[in-house]
Structures are given as C-alpha cells and as structure tokens.
Specification:
eleven-stranded antiparallel beta sheet; elongated; mainly beta; eight-stranded antiparallel beta sheet; 2 helices; 37% strand; Jelly Rolls; 475 residues; 28 strands; 3% helix
Amino acid sequence: MASEIRVNKIENRSGLGTVTFADTGVDLAGIVTATTFSGSGASLTNVPDSALSAVTASKLSGALPAISAANLTNVPAANVVGVHTSLTVTNATTTGTAVVGGGVTISESGIEASGIGITVASINGGQIGTKNKIINGDMRIAQRATSSTSITSSSNSFKTVDRWTSYVNDSGTYTNTQATVTDLPGFNVSNKWEVTAADASAAANSYLLIGQTIERNNLVDLAKGTSSAKSTTLSFYVKCSITGNFGVELYDTVNTRHIAALYTISSADTWERKVFTFPGDTTGTITGGVAAGINVFWWLHSGSNHNSGTLATSWAAASNPNRAAGITNLGSTNGATWQITGVQLEVGPQATDFEHLPYDETLSQCYRYYQKITGGGNCQGVVNGAGEAARMGFPFLKPMRAAPSVAVTGTLKCYDSSTTRDYTSTSGVYVVSPFAFDFDTSSSGASGGSTMTHGRACVLYAASDTGGFECSSEI
C-alpha cells in the first residue's frame, strides 16, 4: 500500500505562499513557476495583460475564438492574407498591384477594368466629353494657308492655323507656318513663329503675342463672377530655340480683367510641357452670347508699355504694364524660333492628357468661325437681263457664329447649260444670316466667257479650278 500524507494546508515558512487542499480542488497563493501547462485553460480568469505580452505565434495554434481586432496595431502587411468579406482601409499605400474581384486592377499606371461597367460622375471635377475650350489645339486645321511671310504688323490677324490669331507691332519681322513635327509623339504639326529680321531694341509699344479668343457661349460653365467660380488648367507643349522666360495670359474682354504667369524654356530646341492652373475669378460675370469672352495669349515680345509693372499673377483689373513683365524677347534674336502644339484649357485643377478629336470634328468646329469654300457646286441662281448671274444662293458648310464677311477667292465659273461665264468679283454679296448668302455679278467683274441667256437658271460650275469664297466670322 502506497504511503499517504493527508493535510489541509501547506504554508511556506515566510508566509508568502500557501497551498490549500479543499474538496473542490487546489488553491495556490503566490507565484507559481512551471515548465509546462497542459489541459484546458478555458476557466482561467483575471490573467493580467502583462502576462500575455510575450505570447508567440506557436502558442496560438489551432482554432481561436472570435474576438474583436479593433485595437490591433502594426500588423505586418504580409500577415493580412486570406479572404476578407468586408474590409475598410484608410490611407493605404501599395507598392504593387491591387486586384478587386476578377476584372479591376489598380496600379501606379492607372485603373484597368474589363468585363464590367464603370460609372463616373465627373473627371477632373467637370463634365465627361469635349473638355477642351481651345479649338484646333493640335494645329491640324489651316484653311487659309500653311505659311505667311514678312509679318511686321498684325492686329487680330489670322495668318495660317485656324482659330489662332496674332498681334504684332514694331517688334521685328516674322514668318508664321503650320510646321511639321517629327519629335513629339502624338502630334504631327505645330504653330511656328520665326524671327527673320530682329528687333535689337524694343520700343515702348513693341509686342508680339499669339492666342485664341473663346466665345462667351463656351465659358458659361466657369461660373465666372460668382462665389462658385471654377478654376481652369492650361497645358501645352512648347519648343523654342532660345532659353528664357515667356508669358501666358487669360484676358477677360467682357470685364477687362486678366491673370498671367511665366513659364521657362529650360532646354533650347526641346519640346517641353507646361501646365498652369488659374483660380476661378469671383469678379466679373460672363453670360452666354456669340461675342468674345476670354482671350488666351502667349507673349513672345514686349516693350515697356507691357512689361514695366508687376506680373498679374492673380485676377485683377487689366493693366498693360502688368501683362508681360519678366519675359524674354524672342524678336531680339535673328533666326529664333518658337513653336506650340497640344494646347488645352479645361475646367478644374488638374491637367489631363490632350483631347485628340477626329479630324472632321475639329474641322467642323473651325467652320463656325471661318470657311474657305472652293470647287463650286451647290449654288444656283438665274441669268439677269444683262446675261450675268444673279441671286446666286450659297449655303454655308455649317451655320457660322454670326453673319460673316464674304470675299471672292479665285475665279467663279457660272454655267447656264450652254455657256460658261467667269468672274473674279461680284457686284454685290447679301449676308443676312449665319446660314447662307446670295451674290450678284456684273460685266465689270467678268474675266472670261460669254454672256449667258436671260431667264435661264445657272449654277456655280463644279470643277477643281473653280474659285469660291472666304467667309469669316472670327472674334
């Protein structure tokens, strides 16, 4: 028979620890040191937090009961694995790729989605669709000409590229071309200005600036002059043969206000992209209408009348000395060149990629302001008593901004089914709407052929050598 010791309590001599035996179990008082613990710990209570601070992962194997992770911090990303049915992450940064479901991949280059629909309320805080307020910003349309030389003066004059005007005064001699581009992917032409005779010493009223005037109808969404006025972002590609600072300016023609900025040509003969965000102007409203609203100008040369002040870097009442302060004068260097393309003005504080429109869409936008109609056809009238063409009705290619000015270009060939009559001018042009015009002829404008038969109908002959009309409704 084994030996037994039966006691109710064992107490340390110092009184610091006791072991008490009772019918319900063993109670231990004091510190217990053990090399191992086995059995269920389900009934352990009042275990202090400090006693769990060094629990290793190997001690947490098996199934754990569901607990809140609300207070977990510094959990390594590598440990967040598996399927999470509901996970909210704030201010997360990933250096790799995040995959959402089976069709959306988010990476540094953007968001790729396949097989699903994406609903977007706006891009850059503005509407989706045509976003560029500059027409022909890639310089592809040039109905008038592709080159204009010996330019010494100009006042809102359109030389080559459609919708792009120029102002030149006492600043040298220039050539303006629609120039081929081979070193800027995505663009094939530019608006190029070259100095062919330098202006060594700029006079007070010297200037060269090019730009585009935006119609008021296309500016209403800016909410200009209200507390909700929106910012705009201007971006463009520029290449210049000389380094230095040049200026850009938004000029509100309605309220005579402006804001300007300088950009730096850092490397000569190198395409550089420039981006400027201009705050919304809460002063001076612009409502709809077909008249001029805002001019976007690029300053290339100026005298003291336009550069002796402080550049207007905030919206303010227009002041000439503050329009081009700090710019380099392109016209001071003979042979200097300046080119621009990929121009975009959009609502919002971010510059997005240039909006490439189909060629025919850009051409149609330009037709609102200028149309060069040649080749004859689609024009009918009658032969008057003098044997000349009369009341020849000619519809525009599309409705124009306003009733345009009309000028003959080339030789008009009229035909009455038996006789062709040539004219280099008209005796009268009648423009009463932006949709069509009529014209009369007379013997004084005839340059060839015989008079036609009175009373017959006649048409403008359709042929490659038939002239036509230049119709301008520019602003």
